[in-house]
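Good day; I would like, with your permission, to put a structural problem before you. A protein sequence and the structure tokens that stand for its backbone fold form the material at issue. Thank you for your consideration; the sequence and its tokens are set out here:
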Amino acid sequence: MSAHPEFLELIGPELKLLLPELDEKARRLALGAVARAAGDGGIGAVARLTGASWQTAADGAAEPGSGQVAPAGRVRRPGAGRKKLAETGPGLLPALLALVEDSSRGDPGSPLVWTARSVKHLPDELTAQGHACSPQTAWRLLREQGFSTQSDAKVAEGRQHPDRDAQFRYIAAQAQEHLAAGQPVISVDAEKKEQAGEYARAGREWRPKGSPVQVRGHSFADRDGGHAIPYGIYDVGAGTGSVNAGTDHNTAALAVGSVRRWWRLAGKDAYPDAERLLVTCDAGGSGGWRNRGWKAGLAELAQETGLQITCCLSRPAPPSGTRSSTGCSPGSPWAGAAGR
């Protein structure tokens, strides 16, 4: 006995209108109900009529009488549906972890590690090894294994000089001695050069809603435009800071001029009885230990102000045999000084 043709002819158009409005569970049960009502061969006839899978129609026909209907809130029985690739292919996960092992980073003691490889490229390598995998599957498996994508973190230091700790202790002692005596201590450093003009900047500022500052669409260098070099000075004793902006290059003249400007505008009033000034900075760029202009400029400033100026550089002393004038290691500070 074949499926009832007249019944299928009548129900077919209605079923095609109804199925798109149903979820997976209701669609499966509707196909099964029609297949049972059509008689023998109804499962195949319904599948051909609607374009649905034969297995879906068969499951829908068998489910109501099997006692294994999907519970409320679920569209499938527990354990039903296509198995995950990691389950059907047990070698997929080990192969994926082997690919990212050489590029994974992070704290070994942390439950979260991260990888520099792209999930767009990992599936191609896995497929070449015989493991079917999509980018979505690779992403899901990596997340399940505690991986995440992150940017680099600047935490690794270079070669450590054996006297580095002693040097910083010396600098700290110098700063404490100056502060205890009521003498100024400043820390100086130049920041990254910035374009001056209508260019986009990182960060946010309070503005009326819907009226952001209008800037250029691209940050290409403008020959006619300028740039600014922020040079920061932090007054350790007062806990205050100031920034002097240069418009040329990060030179010793900018560094010394910034210190001079701070002293004239703030330092001499904050420390009217000062006799000494301690300047701490790193040993590169405009305040580097090789920069003669920096040393000569501080000596000139000492002559102008009558201050004894000592500069401590926070960097290991160069290897023996290298010409150096930093000497800001225990026992040998260098300074530009002048009497009143």
Observations:
- Residues 109-114, 317-340 have pLDDT under 50 and may be disordered.
- DSSP finds eleven helices and ten strands in the chain.
- The CA atoms of residues 260 and 281 lie 15 Å apart.
- The first helix runs from residue 5 to 18.
